[in-house]
Amino acid sequence: MRRLLLLAATLIVSCNVASAQSVQPYAGLEHRPIKALSPQQIDDLRVGRGMGLALAAELNGYPGPSHVLELGDRLDLTADQRIRVQRLFDAMKQEAVPLGNKLVEQETELDRLFSARVVTSDSLKAALVAISETQALLRESHLKYHLSTTAPARSEPNAAIRGAARLPTP
To answer: From CA 109, how far away is CA 115, in angstroms rounded?
Structure first.
C-alpha cells in the first residue's frame, strides 16, 4: 500500500512538472537582452558566422569559402587557390559583419518597442520590413560567396577541388 501511494505521488508530481513546462515554453527567455535572439545567435551575427543561412548551397554541392579553407589540406589547395578562397572569405566577412550588427540593432529596436509598450501596427510593420530586408541581404551575402567559391572550383584542373562539395564537412 505504501508503495502504491509513493507511486501515485510520484506520478502526480511528474504530471504537474510536465504540465508546467508545456504551459511555459519560453520560461527563462524573458531575461534575454533581445528576446528573439540567443546570446549565441547575437555573437554569430556580430562576427559574421553563417548560422545555417547558406544550407541551400552547402547541402547541394556549393561549399563556402570557410569550408573550402578548412578542407584545404584534403583538397590539396595550391597557395594561389588558398589566397583566392581566403579573399572570398574575407570579402564575405566584410559584408556579413555589418549586416549582422544591423540585424542585432533592428531586433533590439523591435524588442524595445514591445518592452516600452509603444508598439503600433505601423511601427511593427516598419520594424519587420526592415528586419526581413536585412535578413535577406545577410543570407544573400553568404549564399553568393558559396556560388563564387564553387564557380572557380568547377574549372580547376585539380579533381579534388572540383569535388569539394562532395566531401563531408569536418
So the answer is: 10
